[in-house]
Write a structure and sequence with these properties.
The chain has 8 helices and 2 strands; from the N terminus they run ααββαααααα. The chain is mainly alpha-helical.
Length: 170
């Protein structure tokens, strides 16, 4: 989560320094160098390392952890930040050639990130096996989200085909 926040900060404030492949261990070393003995790291058995202030009273840390665990809003914000970063990264790594051919539009070279498709799959249906109709709906919504998050810069096949369908009706 800290790595995600750091990458989001770099992407927003220092885009020239942004690297989506930035390794967590490098961030840990940077934090240790900057804060020294004032921070501690703890490795729980079920997730990545936790970073905390060495001077923070334990009671305060427990209280904050409890509040964060109870806060659905905080978890949603973290999910949104993660999804946004994946969408922005994917948009930079997949572009349709212009003008696109039918093969370009039917190929899977430009598609929403799998993490977004998975999220929408869990949100829209409880079934692990999705019907063809559900898969189409998930893909359609995901393409709209990608278009919106990129401020219209990432053109998805759906949007190009939609324009052509209106032009043919004239």
């Amino acid at each position: 989560m800290l790595r995600e926040r750091y990458l989001n900060y770099l992407q927003s404030n220092y885009p020239e320094a942004y690297n989506p492949d930035y390794k967590t261990y490098k961030l840990k070393a940077k934090i240790q160098k900057e804060f020294g003995d004032r921070v501690k790291f703890w490795q729980p058995g079920f997730r990545g390392e936790l970073v905390y202030s060495a001077v923070l009273p334990k009671g305060s840390a427990v209280e904050t952890a409890f509040e964060m665990a109870a806060s659905g809003q905080k978890r949603l914000e973290e999910a949104a930040i993660l999804l946004r970063r994946h969408i922005i990264d994917a948009s930079k790594n997949s572009e349709l050639p212009w003008p696109p051919t039918v093969e370009d539009l039917q190929s899977e070279t430009v598609k929403p990130p799998n993490i977004l498709l998975s999220f929408l799959g869990h949100l829209l249906t409880k079934n692990t096996q999705k019907t063809v109709k559900q898969q189409r709906l998930i893909r359609s919504i995901a393409e709209d989200i990608c278009y919106c998050v990129s401020n219209g810069h990432w053109k998805m096949p759906k949007h190009i085909l939609l324009v052509h369908s209106f032009e043919e009706e004239k």
